[in-house]
Design a protein that fits this description.
alpha/beta; D-tyrosyl-trna(Tyr) Deacylase, Chain: A; two-stranded antiparallel ribbon; 2 helices; 8 strands; globular
């Protein structure tokens, strides 16, 4: 499971020219689920995300997490995070989980994250074509992979 995390001043999702979700200060999280992902990946990544200290304290040091700043989370499904680009110029998405496997893990991730941050996670429509807008704060952008826990 991969998450591309962006600290934002604001972010929103638009589907068919209609805004479906929006947040102010918080995190825009693009999440990609692969065929080998399990409930354990969901648990590890949701805990890592909820505790990630990437918000500035009074001394402008990154010491605060999403709960500390009472921030919001916007979660967007993004199978392209598992693109393989080693051969040729056309990415392969063979590692990305099919919807029948990915949707239950996506929903579990939302449930786990809601519980950890004590706030409702805003979401996009899984698998929809959408426009995502954001104002990256910092900019701060971090990639986390549950299979490569660096």
């Amino acid at each position: 499971m991969r998450a591309l995390i962006q600290r934002v001043s604001s972010a929103s999702v638009e589907i068919k020219m209609k805004q479906t979700a929006a947040i102010n200060h918080g995190l825009l999280v693009l999440i990609g689920i692969e065929t080998l992902d399990t409930d354990e990946d969901v648990k590890w990544l949701s805990q890592k995300l909820s505790g990630l200290r990437i918000f500035s304290d009074q001394d402008q040091n990154m010491n605060l997490n999403i709960k500390d700043v009472d921030g919001e989370v916007l979660l967007v499904s993004q199978f392209t995070l598992h693109a393989k680009t080693k051969k040729g110029n056309r990415p392969s998405f063979i590692k990305a989980a099919r919807p029948e496997q990915a949707i239950p893990l996506y929903n579990l991730f939302i449930k786990q994250l809601d519980s950890l941050i004590n706030k409702k996670t805003k979401t996009s429509l899984f698998g929809a074509m959408m426009n995502v807008s954001l104002v990256n704060d910092g900019p701060v952008t971090i990639m986390i992979d549950s299979k490569n826990r660096e």
